[in-house]
Amino acid sequence: MKKASRRKIALAALVLVAALAAAAYLWFRRPDYELVDLGSLGGSYATATAVNDRGQVVGWGTIADRSHRAFVWQPGKGMTIIETLGGRNSFAHDINNKGRVAGNADTPDGANHAFIWDPNSGFTDLGTLGGKKSRATAINDRDQVVGYADANDGRAHAFLWHKDTGMTDLGTIYGIRSYARDINNRGQVVGSVAVPTKRDHAFYWDPDTGMIDIVGPNGVSSYATGINNAGRVVGNIYIPRIINYAGFAWQKGKPLKTLKLADAESYTDKINDRGQIIGRLRSNKFLFFPAETYHFLRPKFGRMVNLNKFAPDETDEIFAVDINNSGWIAGRIRTKSRKQPPDRAILLRPR
Length: 351
Description:
Elements: H1 3-28, E1 33-39, E2 46-51, E3 57-62, E4 68-74, E5 78-82, E6 90-95, E7 101-106, E8 112-118, E9 122-127, E10 130-139, E11 145-151, E12 156-162, E13 166-169, E14 178-183, E15 189-195, E16 199-206, E17 210-213, E18 222-227, E19 233-239, E20 244-250, E21 257-258, E22 265-271, E23 277-283, E24 292-298, E25 305-306, E26 317-323, E27 329-334, E28 343-350
Antiparallel strand pairs: 1-28, 2-3, 3-4, 4-5, 6-7, 7-8, 8-9, 10-11, 11-12, 12-13, 14-15, 15-16, 16-17, 18-19, 19-20, 20-21, 22-23, 23-24, 24-25, 26-27, 27-28
């Protein structure tokens, strides 16, 4: 064998070893997070519900008179309360990269309406589909908002709202009810739809296909909770006689894949553009002890991470709700300390 050939083989071997070492590092590396306590609004409960790619966080909490207020938090500025539509309560559920917030709030006549809130122009009441209630659950960077609203028959219907078209009813497939939970920047929507067998099924919607029952009319109970900009959907599906619910991943044109996170009941909540997933895991391994529940981060490459490891005290419990494309996680922390409110909004930032 010529010396040049031996050198090429040796170089290829070194490249392979380096690639395997990098893969092993990604697999075994433990992510390290800094916990930022966002505080509360003066009441006993506050939670963050979403974080955008600029690090702006929204959520809601109780104030001194025990009513609820939406808030937006910004690095270096702290919390700003988002008031109501003239009623008692307001709730924020999502924020896009323009800083526009989607949520719902009470009106003076006792109704509850979906809204967009802009830091410069304030509220836009999105109205309803003919009933008294609506709720905005997500907003994308095109200012498209999804959620659900009461129709004239009093049943909830998933909607898509934009300033140019107003509120559009996305339908129900089976004529019962539907709920939109998330939307990506391509205008693809996911959520759940009721079926005649008194179950809910996960749905996917886009302008070309309309609403699709992901598991089919004869499928088991399921619901979709998040979609990233690549169109990858996460949600939860019932697995009878095994572990109750398990997370799933699905993409249009591909089969549904159950995420076998552990030999336990699990729920997936959100997925970012890097493929990182947050959710909850419930373990029932010990018959005579209470079940343990903890929230997790599942990297695209790597092992599942118990987020409670980043709590200040081992008795604290972290609840993860949303994750942005930098891996920042929004949620809340529950503590047994009497020196602080028991539930406070938090942000976990990678170090």
